[in-house]
Fold these 3 entries.
Entry 1:
Amino acid sequence: MNRLLLSNPAFEQYGLKRLALAICLVLLGASLAHAQEGVLQIERGFAKITRGTKVRILREVGTPISLTLEDRVQVGTNSKATVWIRDGEETIQLASRSYFSLDSVSAGETTISMPTGKAQFKVTRKLGKLGGKLGGKKLGSKAKFQVRTVTAIVAVRGTEFVLGSESGQTSLLTLSGEVAMASAEAPEVEVTVPENQASTVQRGLAPTAPVSVPPEVQKEITQSDSANSFKVVAFPPAVPIEQARQQKKREEEKKKEEAKKKEEKQKEDKKDSKKGPDKKESEKQPAQKQDTKKPASGSAPGAPEEKRPTPAQAPAPVPKNLPRLDNLPQLPEGLDQVLENVQQETNRVRKKVIRLKLNRK
């Protein structure tokens, strides 16, 4: 039957083509599975690369070696290695006793793991702006560079920084640009570490507030071969993750309230702008229009207005409930005649005085 099948012209025409296509696909899949994603070069000492069940010890200093997503790199004691990704746009200098692996390298994202050790990272390719949640919840499709340790997630936006991970603690020093760091237990609780500042995160705690690092301390950290070099930085106390979550929630609610007030104010301003300048002016100055008075008919045109008394010069208020004239008490009998006689005598004396003055003249 096999002889008949092989001698069939249809098999020769189609079967061999399918077989050749299947072989090509298998070979292509094998090549893709081990496609080069980075380049490793030993600078000093040695490194161990584990790929599946195979282990290689590399001692060729200065010789580039291709890395794939399956490779796990362990830098030896008193050794140093450099990894290049994306044709050198992403450079990682691994210190001794560091563990490193490439998790994913896509068109817009690079994710690597460094469970323990120390490394200096430099990213020169253009990435999205910093300002999203870590863990892939808000960063979306923006290009990014992420590093994961046992206790932290670090997101980069085109920068240079040093990262140290040891004994359940991850420390970060930003040399240029900005780096966001969050606890691996709570990616939503993060801090942004600007240039020349540092932060650290431990298990069960949120990242500490960034602190400034003097140039001499930065130099000591970058030149050190151990993650313990971050112990020279006086980090502030860290708060528990749950407390940090509650604080972040309050801050977000406050921001929402402020944004709501701002939006309402913008609506009011927009509404006022539609009323026109004349109407707005009339609403803004109603008191001025009420105080405006026409000049008196007897006053000359352009005459200065009478100055109004200041509050200190204003007369005292008239008391209320004054007695009416018809309710005043009656004068005693005969007193009217006495007052009239006094008035007549006063007039007589005044006339006499006037005559005397005229005679003297």
Entry 2:
Amino acid sequence: MTGTDQISWVRRRDWHILSSGMFTYTNDERFQILHSEGSDDWTLQIKYVQKRDNGTYECQVSGSAGLISHFVNLQIVIPEAHIQGSGSGEHHVDKGSIINLVCIIDKSPTPPQYVFWYHNNNMINYDTNRGGINVETLPGHPTQSRLTITDTHEADSGNYTCSASNTEPAFVYVYVSEGDNVDAILMRKSCAMCVASQLILLLIPSIAAAMR
């Protein structure tokens, strides 16, 4: 590079010229050019990156040798939280048994600063009134946070939320009931689906007859 070379950064998604020299051409204050006098480095800094910042950025060097471009592909990875075994959104346990919920914080470059557990919007990490509640968080890649509740009763039913500092919260609804009641709940859901299917099958011949 020579002293007369002009450095520009361009966002290829919309061909927006973000900077030329030390001047930025965007109202987004997250974008800034970092350059030290006498250095050949012209760094485009984006603070508080967001998903929409994904894409290709072009560094253009314009000078006596013509135009030289260097492309940088930026991929934003957003940390995610999910509770193991909560694909259906529900978790059934027998009264008097143990609730074991494991929250996985994945795709995070650094462990979250905290992981809080909530029962019906009430934080229970440091619960002392009920007792029998334990939260153990193991930082790593991924970070795991385990919520354990012993000697469960019906009041422990409800929505459980895993909320980490760097992710959207994850939810699961826990049903605590007598063993026979759990089977009855599942059977009622199955029967409801069967009745709906039978109604559809009954309607099809009626519709077909009406169309004749």
Entry 3:
Amino acid sequence: MSAEALKRAIDLIKAGKKVEARIILEPIIVAEPQNIQAWVWEIETRDNDAEKIKLMEACLLHNPDASVIKKALAALKTQQEFPVTTVETQKPEKPVSIRINPFTEMTEYMDEPAGSSLLKTCQYCGELVEETAKVCQACGRDLGVAEPAGDEAVDEEVVKEIEDEVVVEKPNKKKWYRRSWIKILTFFLLMPVWCVIELSDPDARSGFKVISGVLLVFFITLLSLFLYWFFTTNSSRANLYNWYHLLSGQASSSVPGEYVQVQGTIYNPGNSPFSLVELQAKVYDENGNLLGNTTQYLDSAVLIPGTPTYFKMDVTSLLSPFQSGMTKQQVLFYDDFSGKANGWLENSGTEGETTYSEGQYRVTVSSANFDLWSNPQKNFTDSRVEVDTVRQGGPEGNRFGVQCRYTDANNYYFAVISSDGYYGIGKVVDGEQTFLPKNGMLVTDTIFAGSAVNHIRFDCVGSRLTLYINGDYVDAVDDSDLKAGDVGMLAGTFEEKGTQILFDNFVVFQP
């Protein structure tokens, strides 16, 4: 009930009807003398400073811990004891109204720690603010030194005192040797030294000698394991060379996404039977030191008599101490588009064009929101499809990539990227296109912008569809609607037409 009455009183005060509000507030204070908010609004109804002081003192009798009332009372008494005087002609002093902000949240009425700052009045609106505040919360004005209005002047001594009280504390920057990681690193590096000194001291306690001996064995073991890893991963010269490039910020290649590989073709004349072909690649440094080697085996079933078989061996891992492994995957199909023997479609129409172009395969899409693709008429169940792509023309808001398990124009899986940094994995089933998952193309930072080469890899193994871009894993989804089919290359447009993509080094591996 008191809350509703207090609300009515507040509305009356806001409307300027202080006398009517006082009639409502006084019974509330009598019934609930601990209601600080009622006291605050009762004080707000008084225009005379003496009456305000009496009400504040009465409030403190019932609420001796009300810090806000204490501060307001002290500020009001200070204002009366030390009135502000002007240097020039004296004008009738205008009574300064000391007001308690009735909109203050009740959390401010809680006890404050000793030594908290006093309140002061805003010279513009008369509201109480913290003594250290620089902006009034009520009127929003700057609480710096007020500019003299008209012919009034500000006492220079008062201004000087205010400026002396304002102390700007600059953050104390921590010295570099006081940082925690420096201390930890120093402790770790100096620990073996302490162990050696402690063991060599004949007067050292036996307990400290045991501890230092255990720690020294631990550090020696740790160092031995590191050196073993460092010198056995590859040759020491290769490790040091790569570490130097890593620490100096240099790259092993000036072209983004470039990798070192050995590639070529194997021709089987079919004269003699065999089971396997072993391919071995060795990498040497400039001084003839062996950095490493890798081996790849090709089954005789892959090497069709009378047909050149493409192989590719990635030896980038041999140049880095942080990578390892060998490439041992069978090539099921390869085309560098130097000839037209693999059945890629050449066609031209109003929607676009697919054709061979100077050792590459070019797809041009001349219609908006349209896809064009081509297939070599093969059939694979599980496959790993890779291709090099370049945007030759058209908008960056495009899409291009590869297909797998293509049965017809209405059923296939696809993985596409765009020149403006998006990728998508999806399917077309019964003529309906769907992205997997159903949230469209997503952003990735693995795509090279402009006319740079982007290497796309799409693995279709079982129900798992995995996309790699420029050698980096991007995303994977699961779907089991399509089981087997052809592979292919695809390019398309959105709202803007004119997409033109070049494809090269199309290869299908056995996953």
